């Protein structure tokens, strides 16, 4: 997927926030820590540093939302992050992005913190960012003590 295609999908999927530009996607992907996973109509961009994966963005073309494309690229993101040595994954999401929250919660993410007023909306108001995290280690859960 080209940087222009990434920007087009991001712009369509994130109409309530400032979309990322093709040059921003290009710049991010120049880092050896950043990786991209794609399907025909969705993508996830992540980075792994020191055993932690950060989901930078995940976007699905609006007409294909609800058809499993986002879930598919999220699973690819998890698998790729693990192969790069990540043991945990984290992300932030606008608290009013209910579709994304559902996707992340059903994928095993739990809220770890909240940043009030983090995202600016088109009308000038702000909405909190929820910080979510999950383990990428098979068989590990929050109730399992670390050894």
From TrEMBL:
Domain N-acetyltransferase: 1-137
InterPro entries linked to this entry: Acyl_CoA_acyltransferase (IPR016181), GNAT_dom (IPR000182)
PROSITE patterns (alphabetical): GNAT
Single GO term (MF): acyltransferase activity, transferring groups other than amino-acyl groups
Top-level division of the source organism's lineage: Bacteria
Alphabetical UniProt keywords: Transferase
Protein name: Ribosomal-protein-alanine N-acetyltransferase
Originating species: Thalassovita gelatinovora
Lineage: Bacteria, Pseudomonadati, Pseudomonadota, Alphaproteobacteria, Rhodobacterales
